[in-house]
Amino acid sequence: MRLHTDVEDYRESMQFIDSDILDTVLSEMERQDFSRFSRNDVVFALNQDVLDPKDFAALLSPAADSMLERMAARAKDDTARHFGNSVSMFTPIYVSNHCENGCAYCGFNKDNDIHRIKLDMESVEREMRTIASEGLSDILVLTGESRSDVDLEYIGGCIDIAKRHFKSIGVEIFPLNVDEYRLIQERGVDYVTVFQETYDPSLYSKIHRFGPKRVFSYRFNSQERALMAGMRGVAFGALLGLGDSSKDAFACGLHGHLLQRRYPHAEISFSLPRLRPFSNGRYDCDMTERRLLQVALAYRIFMPFAGMTISTRERPTFRDNVVGLCATKISAGVSVGVGGHCGAKVSEGQFEIFDTRDVSEIVRMLKEKGLQPVMNDYVRV
After folding, report:
1. Closest CA to 326 of 345, 363, 344, 301
2. DSSP class per residue in 63-94
3. What residue ranges of the chain have pLDDT lower than 70?
């Protein structure tokens, strides 16, 4: 199967689903001319109780840059209305950095000369026990994207261990088919994170030089396949700074919006990753913090009930200012290398982080801001 967005055919293992959301997102993205929005368009959008995609585009436009204070006030009100003063906390655990893809911006890409590791189950247990001892109850399990090195049975073993220590389990792994998502959901996974990286098919094909990730539409439909399998939540993200930030953020927001309408029960959330240097390489990023803030505020106002995670890629002071304003989830005690939590095995990180604070420091920061750190907001029955 080949779609107009794909530079490679679907591989035999990849499931095709007949969904119109991809075509809708790309056609709406292409028809937006962000330079044509005026200050009046931004004011109009901010005066709406419920925004449509055109209003969302106005908030992402250059015209909105001079109105960030008003956007921030609206976003803060929306966040308080839907989330109160609570901020969820979690940490990622990298269990493998083996990867089959040639992503030009990533420290795990197959061509990068790094120490490749896959933790054994005993090491996974030690890592998770160490993380849980810090008080966290929400964990995100990450791998590089290599089915040949990290199969579903291995991932299932990690999930089984995670269930002994954590109440909420997410995964950020290679995209799966519906039946595979159902298997890990039944095993104990609550939510799935998949970053499209960029929604520009042409740029996508250039920076994903080889590997299964080159099949744009298969990756795009990952969240829908997960929801079809009964997953509770799905997270979206564009790697901001790779391409046109207005188009990528607009497409990412619309992607989540359309899936929320199709699957009303789903918990939708957005991540705000910004391009960062990585081991043995770097990828230039000219996206400023101010621009990142504009994107975050626009997400919140467009989808006031969606979760939002602020990454350790950002400076501590920036993260501190964004939580409570529009972000509702923050990571702490982060290591982006395999085996980095208890030091049994440590590899190069997927990217460079900015915020190295531990759990107690993030908890203290939140309380000083009058916010309530929440270690878990979900109980499995």
Report:
1. 301
2. GGGGGHHHHHHHHHHHHHHHHTTEEEEEEEEE
3. 1-4, 277-284, 343-351, 378-381
The SS3 call for residue 308 is strand
DSSP letters along 170-204, please?
EEE-S---HHHHHHHHHHT--EEEEEEE-S-HHHH
Domain count, the chain: 1
3-state secondary structure of 214: helix
Residue numbers of the domain that contains 184:
77-374
Q: Which helix (H) or strand (E) holds 131?
A: helix 121-132
Q: In degrees to the nearest 10, what's the CA dihedral of 271, 171, 284, 338?
A: 140
Q: Which residues contact 364 (CB under 8 A, 6 or more apart)?
A: none
Whether 265 is covered by a domain: the verdict is yes
pLDDT score for 376: 77
**Residue among 26, 167, 151, 143 at smallest CA distance from 89:** 167
> H-helix or E-strand containing 294?
helix 289-302
10 within a domain of the structure (yes/no): no
In contact, 325 and 90? CB cutoff 8 Å: no
Q: What is the pTM of this model?
A: 0.94
Domain holding 363: CATH number?
A: 3.20.20.70
pLDDT tens string 292-334? 999 999 999 999 999 999 999 899 999 999 998 999 999 999 9
Would residue 61 count as lying in a domain?
Answer: no
Q: Write the burial class of residue 43 (CB in 10 Å: 0-12 exposed, 13-18 middle, 19+ buried).
A: middle
Instruction: Tell whether 256 is covered by a domain.
Output: yes
